[in-house]
Amino acid sequence: MRVRPYRAADAGVLGGIFFEAVRIGAAPKYSAAELAAWAPLHPSPEVWAARLDGLLTLVAEEGETALGFMSLRQDGYLDLAFLRPDQRGKGVADALYAALLAEARALGLARLTTEASRMARPFFLRHGWQELAAQVVERQGVGIENFRMALDLAEG
User: Fold this and answer.
1) Of 25, 51, 107, 155, which has the maximum CB count within 10 A?
2) pTM of the model
3) H helix and E strand count, the chain
């Protein structure tokens, strides 16, 4: 497995990873209504390319197969962190996170923030992030719980 920068040609595949990670991977922690509101449709490559525009995105792959990705905004907000459901527990998230952390430090960021799902929360806690607050965000008229979290890079 290797971690590399996002390429425009990845957009469709990463949109598919997002969709499956939500609809299949997050199913143990969220209701069917929450999952459908979070990811109502499989995003088109064009929609997903626009979503990733301006983000620092890293892709984990094995051979030519994308396994997952993480995206960071310039202000230190970890915006996206998704894996193919069959890649959970195989070190893919750890490899992506280590590479993203190195990029954040190289950019001189002092603090990272995120809004972690119920699925992602334990991962971030394990990596030293602090939970700031549970919150409910609305998508398609449905409330979905997530957790505002932060990591001070001088400490993490």
Assistant:
1) 25
2) 0.93
3) 5, 7
